[in-house]
Amino acid sequence: MNRYGVVQEQDWNLLQDAEFQALVRAEIEANYPEELRYPPRRLYWREQRVWFQRMAEKGWIAPSWPTEYGGMGLEPAKLLIFLSEQERWGVARFQDQGIRMIGPMLVNHGTEEQRRRFLPGILSCEDRYCQGYSEPEAGSDLASLRTRARRDGDAYVVNGSKIWTTMAHDVTHIMLLARTDPDAVAQRGISFFIIELSTPGITVRPIQDIAGHRELCEVFFEDVRVPVDNRIGEENAGWDVGKSVLSYERVNIGTPQMPAYALERLQTIARLRGMSQDRLVKGRLAELKLDVKHLSDLYTSFAAILVEGGTPGPDVSILKIWATELTRRIADLIGELAGPAGAVKGQVQVGDEQVDVLDVFYKALPSTIYGGSNDVQRNVIAKRVLGLPSEPPLRGDARPSRTPRSGSDA
Amino acid sequence: MTNSPNTSSFVGAAPEEMLADLKAVGRKAVPPDVARVRALRDEGQDFDRAQWQRLVDLGWIGLSAPVHLGGEGAGMDVVATVAEVLGRAAAPEPFASAAVLPLHWLAQLPGAAEQVVEDIVRGELIAGPAWQDEAGSIAVASPSVRANGGADAPVLNGTAWWLPVPDADVFMVLAQLSGEPVLVRCARDQRGLTLVPLELADGSRSAHLRFVDAPIEPAAVLARGDRVLRTLNAAVDATRLAVSAELLGVMERALEITLDHLRQRVQFGRPLGSFQALQHAAVDLFIQMRLTRAALEGATRVWTDPGSTDRDRAAASSSVKARASAASALITTKAVHLHGAIGFTDEHDLGQYVNRAVVLGAYLGTAHEHRDRYQELTDDEGLNKVGVAQ
Ligand SMILES: Cc1cc2nc3c(=O)[nH]c(=O)nc-3n(C[C@H](O)[C@H](O)[C@H](O)COP(=O)(O)OP(=O)(O)OC[C@H]3O[C@@H](n4cnc5c(N)ncnc54)[C@H](O)[C@@H]3O)c2cc1C
Q: Which pLDDT tens digit goes with each residue over B11-59?
């Protein structure tokens, strides 16, 4: 038993891959609720809590965390098996940003006291997180954010608003980037906070998206008092904390899960439409299959860094770009093969099965935007990995500016 | 294709530090030297025998041969590391086709073939494998050369196509004798043998071997039976992995040259590399290079895993060859575009990498062929297996 109250039955990494796979598969097939398989939208917590609480009790909720912090400590090959077994059975994802981002971030940036305070709630699923970064005027140019946190004794007082905060209406905590020094150069005046959404002064309003779902939210802060102890990292040093969270997010968006799921849907629809054996279709299926395979090869090398408790470098952006654009390509081919069924919302009869043809389309569509848009990711790689020179400044207007730049490009 | 495990002898993974050292030392020993390659080409030489001997001395040529035959008994991770270094150097020495392929093939055929292995490892013999049919099918199929006249006085007729090393001292010919596949050792001056050479894009050559009533000694039949085909199959798959690693070196170097150019070349008063359109184009090439590296690591893991079957290994080799062929073509050609006209000149180093990618991309199967093959080899796996090697 470690200090986070989670025991692992054994060292999973000592098992043969096939043994581990059989074990995970048996658990899922025996206990995952049938009616929750392949959900076409994000499920609310009340719909799926039974399963994830079971995972938490089993000690399986944080597969990639080191065991000393209550995770399963899976090495990359095992982690991939763990993920792909869930994918194979159509297991839902919950709002697991606490597992995927907050945990690794606290390991690297939090204090011991903060780890003891926040990790157990994440591991038990009692605390679930959303990400309060984007604002109406601060999207790709995140460092221009304006939500203000003013120090007042042993607390900060937060005012402002966040937007596109996924599932804010279904979770308990928000990670917040707010400006603590309005006079500093953009990135320097930002701090990182963890805030309970039940704190007085917070209002959440859902936004309907073009798939008809209500997953995105606006979050408004009006004189919200946040204890100083909820600040992660030093005051005004929140930008680096926030960026490390983004790098975990990129590893997560870059798992082969979404494209593998999309490929499975594509193969199914091709089969149901009797097109699997068409020469041209076969060629494209084979190409996409290898695109997914090589994503998982690539993911393996980054997962190794996470399992050892490290933070990936800026090259991690290639995972996010490849995974999301690959899913878009798969969605395109699904549309081409589906015929008139490709226009139907929700379940539709194709051949002898019911499928949601548009599901992959709506999952893929926003994926090139969130988690740092792919254009911005390419900018980052070009400069920080390939060492290409910066573009001339574009702030304000096109005239050369004599004042120093205040903006960011991460 | 059989499912019996390990037609090639199995060698496990080497420690990562050892591979990193080998790469660092290798890069110093054989740095990129396009001037040398161009000079060889202009003299009409496929490769440099003195350089081959250096590779022998470095222990690289004998990497794939087992220790009891004088080799290093190295695994595919070590072979891939060396191949990548050679690709990066644009070295025309036929490491994959005249070391990896024949050694993997012959070392598994006990008897007379082992002598050839020892000679190759010592650098005393360069052996060219001749097994392909006219279509250049990537499957190792029934031989297109026939031996008639019985086992006592065999006579060869037919053509072995697409031989990669026409300058070899001897040819290892796949033939058919009384309904059985056989491996025949055949000298350059073999009576009844004509070489039909073809000039390739990078200045090297390939050739067809045409046999017309060519009488051979019975002792020249080094091995016979199905294992000749089975071991050739496995050897060709090992070679595909090595060629893919060489292509990785090719694309890595081409990308480096291109990034240097983007940083230095100024137009419109700015370095080209500060234009976002070109930055994003460069990033897309970088992604393809990294995917190839990941695919290579994935494939090598399969080859160095004791639980892998021949079929797993074949799928792994097709996986990486498909990516390496397509990515090297994309990167090298786009690199020319990003250079402008200077990139299209023979004087610029880039050209050698472009042409090398053309040649190695087609050798032992194009991207398209290997995607199909991968699909066939993995078809009965669960749909959602995210590529975890079983
Ligand atoms: C489904 C979904 C879920 C989301 N969930 C969250 C969440 O939970 N929490 C959160 O904080 N945010 C979330 N976001 C917001 C997301 O992070 C932003 O949408 C993203 O950062 C882009 O900002 P923007 O939408 O303001 O677009 P803009 O920044 O205005 O960009 C518009 C377009 O311009 C391009 N562009 C912008 N700058 C450049 C540049 N320098 N070079 C080249 N091209 C450029 C972009 O790539 C994009 O194509 C979510 C978004 C979506 C779609």
A: 888 999 999 999 999 999 999 999 999 999 999 999 999 999 999 999 9
Which fold does the domain A254-368 belong to in CATH? Butyryl-CoA Dehydrogenase, subunit A; domain 3 (1.20.140)
Interface test with A, best of B303, B372, B386 (most A CBs within 10 A): B386
Do the Cβ atoms of B386 and A391 come within 8 Å? no
Cβ contacts (< 8 Å) between A264 and chain B: which residues? 383-384
User: Which amino acid is residue B97, in one-letter code?
Assistant: S
Q: What is the pTM assigned to this prediction?
A: 0.89
- Record the tokens describing residue A304, joined without a space: 């190794």
The interface predicted TM-score (ipTM) is 0.87
At a CB cut-off of 8 Å and minimum separation 6, what does A220 contact?
A161, A202, A203, A204, A205
Q: Assess if residue B383 is contained within a domain.
A: no
Sign of CA dihedral A159, A161, A165, A168: positive
Give CA–CA dist B161/A325, Å, rounded. 41
Q: Which two tokens stand for residue B221?
A: 């039949």
Same domain, B286 and B347: yes
CATH of residue B155's domain is 2.40.110.10
For B84, the token pair is 């990548």
Phi-psi region of B327 (alpha: psi -120 to 50; beta: other; left: phi over 0): alpha
Closest CA to A248 of A325, A313, A190: A313
User: Cα–Cα distance between B252 and B285 in angstroms, integer?
Assistant: 10
What confidence tens digit (pLDDT) does each residue in B188-223 have? 999 999 999 999 999 899 999 999 999 999 999 999
